[in-house]
Amino acid sequence: MTPIFFFGSKVPLPGGEPECGPDEYKPEDLSWCCKRCPAGCHVSADCGVNHGVPKCSPCEPGSFLSHPNGETSCWPCTQCRADQEMVATCTRTRDGQCQCASGSFFCDSPSCVENCFRCRRCPGAVLRPCNVTHDTVCDPEAGTEAPGKELPKDVSIRGLVSFFIVLGILLIIAVFFVMYRYKKKGLKTRISGQLAGGVASGVLWAMGQGETGAASAWGRPEGGRELGAAEPRGRSPPVLLAGVWPHHWSFSFWKGRLDGPDSAEYETEYFVADTSNEDRIYYEFENRISDKHWKTFMRFIGLQDHDIDICECQNPGNLMEQHHQMLLRWRIQLGREASVFKLFAALHKMQLHMYLENTINGLVAEGILVRRSETAD
Known about the structure:
Distance between the termini: 80 Å
Strand order of the largest sheet: 1-2
Order of helices and strands: EEEEEEEEEEEEHEEEEHHEHHHHHHEH
Strand content: 5-15%
């Protein structure tokens, strides 16, 4: 019998330890290897086959993992001591960073793990103030240092008055600068809908997510130009400002108050002719919308950050699958209320007209979406 040799394969020997790759880990009490979870995620369930992918979950707030791993839980974030201040907040992929409190404490070693030292106080002139790495340097001609000695009251009062004078001047300059810019650019505010308590508030919407050169007219454009595929009639245009949509805004609050057509208006202009393959319909959105705008789009339609993190952790490096899973979660959460027309309305309200028109035209070209005007006799 001719012997058969295997080269380069990572098949574990019977009774021996498996040979795991650098991007893998060996679960406890198992005889195979699993792929590591990405940074910011931990293993919530090991893989079921050799070299398989485990189930990964995002780190909870207050914890982190800074590298690909096989950990079953995330590491707790560093907490700054009373004599320290935080210079970098903790995220899912990075620990927080602390340093000695500026102006009060210093450290003369690279790490300062154990404690910081209180800055000395000078009886006279200060040659160099205390900072996080060096103690105060006093004028030697003024005598020896006086640790813990209180400053004279008149010196403290003069310093406090000077501080408030400088602060007042800076505030006045800032106010005049803002008034000048507003006057120069002719910025206008719109009044939002009446809030829950009956209080009307002026809302200035800063949107930087719109595509350059994309159509933003609602209703009939000037010069008698015909409306595009994604431009429903009968709405007045919103007042938009160039800028970036702040991440901390509540999308669930704003999405219902921004001017624009709702899903019902799109449903009066189009209908889905082929409902047999919903995945193909939603794939058009996943394929058309760039990764730059995708998560903003998901937050706008109501998907929570925790759901977004889970989709990213469970599909590391695969953007298309991340997009698919996020949209699938949204569809499951809304159930029968989820529709392609809600997504059309969301893209229009976000001023992402290029994505909107390309998606509609793609679905129409495939015969999945049909304009009602073309079927009416």
